[in-house]
Amino acid sequence: MIKRVRFHGRGGQGMKTASRIVGTASFLEEFFVQDCPLYGAERRGAPMVAFTRLSKEPIFERGIITSPDINMIADETLLGDKSANVFQGTWEGTITIVNTHYPASHVRNVYGVVGEIVTLDITEIALNVIGESVLSSTAAAVVCKLTGMITESSLEKAVIKELSSINLKKELIEKNLQAALTCFDRIPETHPHYFEPIKEDKMDEIVKLEYADPRIGTPSVYAKGNTRLKKTGNWRLFRPVIDHEKCSRCRTCFVYCPHSCISIDEGDYPQIDYENCKGCLTCFYECPKKVISKDHEVRAW
Length: 301
Ligand code: SF4
Ligand code: SF4
What we know:
By secondary structure, the protein is α/β, with parallel strands linked by helices. The protein folds into two domains: 2-200, Pyruvate-ferredoxin Oxidoreductase, domain 3 (3-Layer(aba) Sandwich), CATH 3.40.920; 231-296, Alpha-Beta Plaits, CATH 3.30.70. Helices cover 29% and strands 18% of the residues. The chain contains nine helices and ten strands. The protein has helices at 15-28, 104-111, 122-129, 136-147, 152-165, 170-186, 226-229, 252-256, 282-286; strands spanning 2-10, 32-38, 47-55, 70-73, 95-98, 116-119, 238-242, 262-264, 270-272, 292-296. A six-stranded mixed beta sheet has the order 2-3-1-4-5-6, sandwiched between helices. A two-stranded antiparallel sheet has the order 7-10. Strands 8-9 form a two-stranded antiparallel sheet. The longest helix has 17 residues, at 170-186. Mean pLDDT is 88; it is low at 197-201. One iron/sulfur cluster (SF4) binds at residues 242, 247-253, 270, 287, 289, 291-292.
């Protein structure tokens, strides 16, 4: 029996690490495991997916998970993003977890999700406990609990091992651990549903690699004005806000914005293009006067 977990998030949110934590925790529970991420061509903030498989038998499947048993959606703005396709292959047995403050019934009403839905605002927990919106340990903890097969102790060891391997400071690892255990406790004791064996006929096909035109793998741009057409403002979790009263007009933010979302107006003041600002907060960290604040975006949907 294989459990297949798919993580949807945005670059920088920690879903690759979450998939590794779940993989390591499963390994400690003596499962065979696989985990891998899949990124698109874009940078921080772009939709990405990561996968974990766990099984008591050797795993012969490879490649992406097209039909998940557990589907973690770590960023609610992905729900309505057709290109992210977060519900692809979900079925009656899928547990979809959405990181949101809305109740599960609201998600079902708006998106008509197949299978079970669990909602938990893991961003709020991460902000309160860690002080940052990095969701690797919190997302992993929710998934571990919902597998019904991973103990708190294995989760704890996996968080420490994986976060140490990316050289996180000891105090941040401690906070991540605390946030992870909070999430683990917030998910009710496992429901018998979570133990249901997976039908053998639902097995993913082993990915067959067919010939692809070399142009598919080369970074070619075939259309003009892509940034203008593709608005990335809804990728933002935090909105940078410039206090123009206190701004010294040094232009540091204008120079540092990696996405060219800051322009200088006629009065020599920086202005942020919120339709495209991804919320990377480089401007917030680099402003020498510290006159840029960050507001948590709360979107109604
Ligand atoms: S947060 Fe600041 S630096 Fe980042 S994209 Fe937005 S304006 Fe640019
Ligand atoms: S870096 Fe800060 S002080 Fe300098 S122009 Fe930008 S907002 Fe103003």
